[in-house]
């Protein structure tokens, strides 16, 4: 069967990436080291062994009749070879572990930076080099883990972040092609990266970053409203791009028309999720994700701190994720944690609400941070509910923690935290919020307080924190905050 022009071009692109990858391979050595290696190979070529039998040798206690003529013991030699082989394997295994981004990835970043340095606007706004980005290094580490990633800065992706994402994707393509060549696997025809954006202007920004990678055989196609559908479909078939940047509604039209196959996408980026949801594109995004049948990694940029976005994030990302952020704000650190402040009329009602929450909780482990004097009362309630501090049944496991002995450094795995005695200060509450559920989008922080105690509490800092995090503020707290400010 004759090969089309698109397949020929695709092979050329593959060869270009392979050459670039070899050129920037981290295993490349200096001329001096290469000379040492060559000398070692010459020493092992067998010349010395050939002349060894011709040389005069004396009898030894191991060879009293000189039958071996000074030749080394074969058995011992094999044993030593095994040891050397094993040591070499261990050494190679140690070298193969990535201690930093590959040179190929760095060269991709340099290509992008060089293309943008020509733009004076970019030069004025970006004084630092792309490869020095702390966000980029953190993202790269999260990408290697294979888990989904949530960017919690509350903003749209920046040029720096887009550059790191597409450079990492190009590096992953080169590595995958090497593996396919070794294992004689069939090449996938689907694009590697699918980048969903809410608007044409954002699509243009992402594509302008990707253009710099065209020299290594990475082709990018932008799909959005404003261009003919047939024209875009024919363009997809002729180019067969590695990257697609698209608005959800236009991409869904093309997928339904069978203009592109996205079933084998390896990396899905959803930018400005809050904007996509407010524009009514969430269902389209979900449909696109469902059309990807391959095992893939998702990256979500959440540009909204509203608690209404949390269910959408939970539906798009896996149970265990990595969070990365360019901001150190409390709202960013507490992203995707639902905060609920329960104001109760009395101690009895507070205990009833607490008991109801224990019954309705879907968490496997509930961490209860309480005062020492409340331990006996909480333990009695747990016993009545059949909830144990040791895993014995299908009910959730309770973990009681004295607030005086609270260690926030070990709270990253705590998804559900209950505060039946509220908290002595806003500082401790903030520490708990910013330390818990670091690898989950299912965080829940529930606080309980009586109206009597609420009157004497400084409500304004808590109200400000809840509003910054996009959480619901109870009316009693709003009233208290207004009264105190007056």
From TrEMBL:
Keywords in alphabetical order: ATP-binding, Helicase, Hydrolase, Nucleotide-binding
Pfam families: DEAD
SUPFAM superfamilies in the record: P-loop containing nucleoside triphosphate hydrolases
InterPro entries reported for this sequence: DEAD/DEAH_box_helicase_dom, P-loop_NTPase
GO molecular function, a single term: ATP binding
Residue ranges, compositional bias (Basic residues): 10-21
Annotated ranges, domain DEAD/DEAH-box helicase: 187-301
Transmembrane segments: none
Protein name: DEAD/DEAH-box helicase domain-containing protein
Taxonomic lineage from the root: Eukaryota, Viridiplantae, Streptophyta, Embryophyta, Tracheophyta
């Amino acid at each position: 069967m004759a090969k089309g022009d698109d397949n020929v071009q695709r092979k050329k692109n593959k060869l270009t990436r392979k050459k670039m990858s070899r050129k920037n391979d981290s295993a490349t050595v200096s001329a001096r080291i290469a000379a040492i290696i060559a000398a070692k190979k010459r020493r092992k070529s067998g010349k010395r062994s050939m002349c060894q039998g011709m040389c005069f040798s004396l009898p030894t206690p191991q060879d009293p009749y000189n039958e071996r003529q000074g030749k080394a013991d074969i058995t011992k030699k094999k044993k030593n070879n095994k040891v050397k082989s094993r040591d070499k394997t261990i050494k190679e295994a140690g070298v193969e572990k990535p201690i930093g981004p590959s040179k190929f990835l760095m060269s991709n970043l340099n290509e992008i930076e060089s293309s943008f340095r020509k733009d004076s606007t970019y030069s004025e706004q970006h004084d630092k080099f792309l490869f020095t980005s702390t966000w980029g290094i953190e993202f790269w580490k999260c990408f290697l883990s294979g888990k989904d990633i949530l960017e919690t800065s509350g903003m749209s992706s920046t040029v720096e972040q887009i550059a790191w994402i597409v450079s990492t994707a190009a590096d992953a393509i080169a590595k995958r092609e090497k593996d396919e060549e070794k294992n004689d696997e069939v090449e996938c025809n689907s694009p590697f990266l699918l980048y969903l954006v809410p608007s044409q202007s954002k699509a243009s920004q992402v594509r302008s970053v990707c253009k710099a990678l065209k020299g290594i055989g990475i082709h990018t196609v932008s799909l959005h409203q404003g261009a003919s559908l047939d024209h875009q479909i024919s363009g997809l078939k002729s180019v067969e791009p590695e990257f697609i940047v698209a608005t959800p509604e236009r991409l869904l039209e093309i997928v339904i028309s069978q203009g592109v196959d996205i079933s084998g996408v390896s990396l899905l980026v959803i930018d400005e999720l809050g904007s996509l949801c407010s524009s009514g594109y969430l269902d389209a995004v979900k449909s696109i994700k469902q059309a990807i049948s391959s095992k893939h990694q998702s990256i979500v940029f959440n540009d909204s701190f509203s608690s209404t976005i949390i269910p959408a994030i939970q539906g798009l990302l896996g149970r265990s994720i990595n969070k990365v952020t360019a901001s150190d704000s409390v709202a960013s650190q507490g992203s995707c944690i639902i905060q609920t402040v329960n104001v109760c009329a009395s101690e009895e009602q507070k205990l009833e609400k607490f008991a109801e929450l224990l019954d309705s909780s879907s968490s496997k482990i509930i961490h209860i941070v309480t005062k020492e004097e409340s331990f006996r009362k909480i333990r009695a309630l747990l016993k009545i509910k059949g909830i144990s501090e040791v895993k014995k049944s299908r009910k959730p496991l309770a973990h009681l923690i004295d607030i005086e002995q609270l260690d926030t450094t070990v709270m990253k795995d705590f998804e559900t935290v209950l505060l039946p005695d509220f908290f002595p200060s806003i500082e401790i509450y903030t520490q708990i919020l910013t330390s818990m559920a670091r690898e989950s989008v299912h965080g829940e922080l529930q606080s309980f307080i009586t109206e009597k105690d609420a009157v004497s509490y400084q409500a304004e800092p808590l109200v400000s924190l809840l509003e910054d995090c996009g959480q619901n503020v109870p009316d009693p707290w709003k009233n208290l905050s207004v009264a105190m400010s007056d």
